[in-house]
Amino acid sequence: MNKNDSEDISMNYFKGKQFQKDVIIVAVGYYLRYNLSYREIQELLYDRGINVCHTTIYRWVQEYSKVLYHLWKKKNRQSFYSWKMDETYIKIKGRWHYLYRAIDADGLTLDIWLRKKRDTQAAYAFLKRLHKQFGQPRVIVTDKATFSLLRL
């Protein structure tokens, strides 16, 4: 995140809020990253001297999740040097689908994509989508299934 992004965040999104932007970002980050309940986040913040209601944290998550996700994605766009890609067959409402998934070297999910077919066209579209979001990786690890049919 560069200085202009920081200024945009503080000026536009957090203007007129009772709590500082750092408190809001930490609370929303706890929810998104660690899958904690709103009450658990309330306790964590209280232990650090910040008294905030769990319903306020809920509103923050609803209001700021998408914004913070896009800023994080923009900031980390070039930081994923190694991808692991796989697809799996799953049943949804009685119908079989393929779930394509890409993770980084730390095991964090970069993207997922649900398709009805497993073919090179679907794999290529998923790879193209990842490339657009995160740039070109140095290494792509696959299980030599559909993705190996592509000329990477």
UniProtKB/TrEMBL annotation:
DDE domain residues: 82-146
GO annotation (BP), single: DNA recombination
Keyword set includes Chloroplast: no
UniProt xrefs under SUPFAM superfamilies: Ribonuclease H-like
GO molecular function, one term: DNA binding
Annotated keywords: DNA recombination, DNA-binding, Plasmid, Transposition
InterPro entries: DDE_dom, IS_Transposase, RNaseH-like_sf, RNaseH_sf, Transpos_IS6
Function of the protein: Involved in the transposition of the insertion sequence.
Descriptive protein name: Transposase
Organism the protein comes from: Lactococcus lactis subsp. lactis
The organism's taxonomic lineage, starting at the top: Bacteria, Bacillati, Bacillota, Bacilli, Lactobacillales
